[in-house]
Every structure is written in structure tokens, then in C-alpha cells.
């Protein structure tokens, strides 16, 4: 397997394309040049640091460092889920529900793939575990944040309908079922769209990366199929757990709708 | 008999008894807490105090079972499905009530959005009456109705009261309060009630 190596100098020319975006922003008065510059610097610094960090982790092959890296990834993803919510859950649950469900779903699916499909030695080898977890986390995060966002907003919008069902003797799950269904549909939609369009509209980054690195395209496709199946499973599991958990937290044991437990993010 | 003792929710603090087959009118200016009180009795919001039905504590039965016996009807009832009949477990059984309130008998497959505010209010009442609850907590149930429809609703509820159903009827209409009730509870700013006879 051979691939064309790039030096940092080789990246200077393509970086001019970002400069071109900045010039466009100035000429067209889009006022995006500052944000663009910050985003570009952040991207370069973050990726370079991750490159060195992964090099260290791959050399160490330590279960402790691998677990620490995985936890940090889950924490950042939890923060991202909260940042995307207009209405937030109470207290520790604002981070805990999304983070916990993501850890449950992405962790389960990643360990399943490591133990049954890839079988690296050792099974937690960071070269396999971390990229796999990263890809599954990224997609599960999208599903969970969309599901929770639709759940909380729909409960506010459909409050009269939910409470009408409760007032007539419905249980909290009977009353919330239409809203739960909408939230699950929204959470599943991105991965379903992605699965339908893959190969025709888009070539996924991981597969492209493998092909550029010299892997046979058919082998790269097999890897990509594995990843897509894992992402679909992780997204389904995580979104289901988060939406059901959110529905449980926004009602109480007396089957009352508890919208008072939500806080509105006035900055989003 | 419904017994409400030291019921507290937000600024209101209320105690009263409601006999079987009795209707009490609940009056007071907007924002005084009539809806808050009715929702608290139905246990739709967190509240403190003791509420009993025939001596049985509300907390001793599951909340859905309580609300099937003590049913709250909002001024503007909510709808969770597309068509009218999807909101009823047995639509055909509801047809006599639908007809009684002057609603079209063929409105079952209609989309809820097609209905006027008054039609939705009457259908919400039909939906609640289908439960045959022991206590009805009616929150301005005729606020969107014309005179004829209001009379039909009052007549239907009177028949239920005669059968032993107890009713708390919130209304801004003094004449209606006198017509339908045997006692009037006037809610005062501060959340307490003053009782009078019509």
C-alpha cells in the first residue's frame, strides 16, 4: 500500500483558496473575514494537535490513555449537543442526558465492531477504536441533538394537545407519543438521507481517504459499509434513548407535563 | 363527594366540599386563578393539599385513573390527531351527544382544522363527557358559543348533574352562573374564595 505524502509546504497553495474566500467576503462586504480567519486557524491548530496526539496514542497502545481520549471526545460532543438546544433540560441533565445516551450508543456500537468485525490486537487498539468512535460519535451527536430539539420545541408548541390527552386520563407516554414519533423521525432523518445519497451524490471522507492512501476501492467500500451500518445503529440507539429520556424528564410520576423544568437559551 | 382541603398552587389556597349532583360556579376576574384551581384539582400541575373523592385520597390512585374520575376541560381543548373521530375511543357511541349539541353527525372524518372554534369547544365537551366522570371541571365551556349552543350545553350538563355528576363551572357570565349552579365561588385577588348563593 503506497500513498503520496504531503509536506506542510504542499498545503500552502490550497490554503490560498481560503484566502480567496476572505477576499470575496471583503469585496462583497459579507463581514465574514474575521470569523473565517478564526475558523481556519482553529482548524489548523486542532488538526495538527490531534495528529500529534494520535501519534502518541497509537505508539502507547494504552487502555487508560485510549479511555481518556474517548471520554474527552464524548465530553466535547455532549457540550456540542447542549449548544445546539434552544430549550435545555434541567440541571445536570442538560449535559448528562445527551452525553450519557451518546456514550451508551456510540460506545456499545464501537465495542461491538471492535470485538466482532475488526478484531484488532489488542481489541482496544487506539488506531481502530478512536477513529471508529469519532465517526460514530459525530453522527450520533447530530441525531440526538435533532431529536431533543424537536422534542422540547414540539412539547411547547403542542402543549394543549398533550395536556388534553392527560386530562382525559391518558398516561404520559400515550400523551407524548405523537411528539416522540416526530422527534425520532427528525433524529433518524440525516443518517437516512446520507445512506440514500452515498455513492451517488457524495463519496464519504473516510472512503476517499482510504483510496488516496492506496487501498483498493472495493476494500474501501467494505469499510465504508461497515461504518455506515455502525452509524445507523448508533444513531438509532442514541436518539431513541435520548428522546425517551427527555420525555421522561419533562413529565413526572403523576403524569404531568413539566415544561417548567426546561430553560430557554436566550443566546441561541 | 369531592373534598378539597388546603389546596395550594401558586398564590391560591382553597378548601371546599362538592356534593354528588351539585354544580358550583367559579367566578372572578381574568388572571385571578380560576384555571389554576381547576388544573390543580385535576392534578395537572404540582400542588399541595388534600383532595379526596368519596374519602379516597387522590394520591392513592394513579393520576390517569384520577383524571378519568375528576376530568378537567380546558376553554380551548387540544387535539393530537388529524381527524375528529381519532380523538374518540368509540366515535359511534358519541354520536348522540354530537347531535344533542347541534354538531354535524358526519363530522367524524373531518380534519380538526376545518372546525370553527365553537365546534371544537363543543366537541371537546363531548370527548370529556364520554368518560362519564364523577366530577367535571369546566373552564369557561361556552365562551365561544352562541346563545342556542350555550343553552344546549347547559341542558346537557344539567342532565348529567341530575344523574349525580358534580360540576365546577368557571364562567364570566353572571346570569349563567345563577342558572347552572347552586352555589357561587367568587375568587378574589390573593387566591381565596368567597361563597354565595345565586
Distance between the termini of chain A: 47 Å
Average pLDDT across residues of chain A?
A: 92
Task: Tell me the strand percentage band of chain B.
Answer: 25-35%
Could you state the oligomeric state of the chains shown?
Answer: heterodimer
Mean pLDDT of chain B: 95
**Which overall shape of chain A is indicated by the principal axes computed on the Cα atoms?**
globular
- The level of helicity of chain B is 25-40%
Please give the alpha-carbon distance between the first and last residues of chain B: 21 Å
Count of discrete domains of chain A: 2
Helix-strand makeup class of chain A: mainly alpha
Q: What's the total number of strands of chain A?
A: 2
H/E element order of chain B: EEEHEEHEHHEHEHEE
Short précis:
Chain A has helices at 12-27, 33-60, 63-83, 93-118, 126-157, 159-167, 172-197, 205-212, 217-249; strands at residues 87-88, 263-264. Chain A is an all-alpha fold. Chain B: Keywords: ATP-binding, Nucleotide-binding.
Describe this structure in words.
Chain A: It is found in: Membrane. By secondary structure, chain A is mainly alpha-helical. Chain A contains nine helices and two strands; from the N terminus they run αααβααααααβ. Chain A has helices at 12-27, 33-60, 63-83, 93-118, 126-157, 159-167, 172-197, 205-212, 217-249, and strands at 87-88, 263-264. Chain A has a two-stranded antiparallel ribbon. In chain A, α8 (205-212) runs antiparallel to α9 (217-249). Chain A is globular and about 70 Å long. The model of chain A has no long low-confidence stretch (mean pLDDT 92). Chain B is of the alpha/beta class and 198 residues long. The longest helix of chain B is centred in the last third of the chain and has 16 residues, at 147-162. The mean pLDDT of chain B is 95. The interface between A and B is medium-sized, with 22 and 25 residues.
Amino acid at each position: 500500500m503506497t500513498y503520496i505524502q504531503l509536506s506542510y509546504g504542499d498545503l500552502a497553495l490550497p490554503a490560498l483558496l481560503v484566502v480567496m474566500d476572505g477576499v470575496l467576503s471583503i469585496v462583497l462586504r459579507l463581514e465574514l473575514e474575521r470569523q473565517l480567519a478564526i475558523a481556519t486557524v482553529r482548524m489548523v491548530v486542532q488538526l495538527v494537535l490531534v495528529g500529534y496526539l494520535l501519534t502518541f496514542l497509537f505508539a502507547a497502545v494504552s487502555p487508560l490513555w485510549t479511555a481518556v481520549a474517548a471520554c474527552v471526545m464524548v465530553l466535547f460532543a455532549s457540550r456540542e449537543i447542549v449548544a445546539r438546544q434552544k430549550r435545555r433540560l434541567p440541571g445536570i441533565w442538560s449535559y448528562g442526558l445527551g452525553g450519557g445516551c451518546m456514550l451508551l450508543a456510540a460506545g456499545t456500537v464501537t465495542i461491538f465492531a471492535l470485538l466482532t468485525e475488526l478484531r484488532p490486537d489488542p481489541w482496544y487498539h487506539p488506531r481502530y477504536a478512536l477513529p471508529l468512535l469519532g465517526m460514530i460519535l459525530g453522527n450520533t451527536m447530530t441525531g440526538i441533538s435533532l431529536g431533543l430539539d424537536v422534542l422540547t420545541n414540539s412539547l411547547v408548541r403542542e402543549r394543549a394537545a398533550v395536556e388534553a390527552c392527560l386530562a382525559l386520563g391518558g398516561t404520559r407516554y400515550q400523551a407524548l407519543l405523537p411528539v416522540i414519533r416526530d422527534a425520532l423521525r427528525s433524529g433518524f432523518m440525516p443518517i437516512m438521507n446520507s445512506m440514500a445519497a452515498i455513492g451517488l451524490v457524495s463519496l464519504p471522507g473516510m472512503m476517499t481517504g482510504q483510496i488516496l492512501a492506496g487501498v483498493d476501492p472495493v476494500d474501501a467500500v467494505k469499510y465504508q459499509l461497515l461504518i455506515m451500518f455502525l452509524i445507523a445503529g448508533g444513531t438509532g440507539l442514541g436518539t431513541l434513548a435520548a428522546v425517551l429520556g427527555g420525555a421522561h424528564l419533562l413529565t413526572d410520576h403523576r403524569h404531568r407535563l413539566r415544561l417548567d423544568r426546561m430553560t430557554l437559551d436566550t443566546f441561541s | 363527594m369531592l373534598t378539597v382541603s388546603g389546596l395550594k398552587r401558586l398564590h391560591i389556597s382553597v378548601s371546599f366540599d362538592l356534593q354528588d349532583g351539585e354544580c358550583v360556579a367559579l367566578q372572578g376576574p381574568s388572571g385571578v386563578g380560576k384555571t389554576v384551581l381547576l388544573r390543580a384539582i385535576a392534578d395537572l400541575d404540582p400542588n399541595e393539599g388534600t383532595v379526596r373523592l368519596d374519602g379516597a385520597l387522590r394520591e392513592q390512585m394513579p393520576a390517569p385513573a384520577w383524571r378519568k374520575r375528576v376530568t378537567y376541560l380546558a376553554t380551548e381543548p387540544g387535539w393530537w390527531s388529524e381527524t375528529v373521530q381519532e380523538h374518540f375511543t368509540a366515535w359511534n357511541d358519541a354520536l348522540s351527544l354530537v347531535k344533542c349539541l347541534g354538531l354535524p353527525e358526519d363530522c367524524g372524518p373531518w380534519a380538526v382544522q376545518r372546525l370553527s372554534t365553537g365546534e371544537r369547544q363543543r366537541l371537546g365537551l363531548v370527548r370529556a363527557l364520554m368518560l362519564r366522570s364523577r366530577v367535571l371541571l369546566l373552564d369557561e365551556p361556552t365562551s365561544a358559543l352562541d346563545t342556542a349552543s350555550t343553552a344546549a350545553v347547559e341542558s346537557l350538563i344539567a342532565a348529567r348533574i341530575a344523574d349525580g355528576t358534580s360540576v365546577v363551572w368557571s364562567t364570566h357570565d353572571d346570569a349563567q352562573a345563577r342558572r347552572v349552579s347552586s352555589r357561587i365561588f367568587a375568587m378574589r385577588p390573593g387566591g381565596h374564595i368567597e361563597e354565595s348563593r345565586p
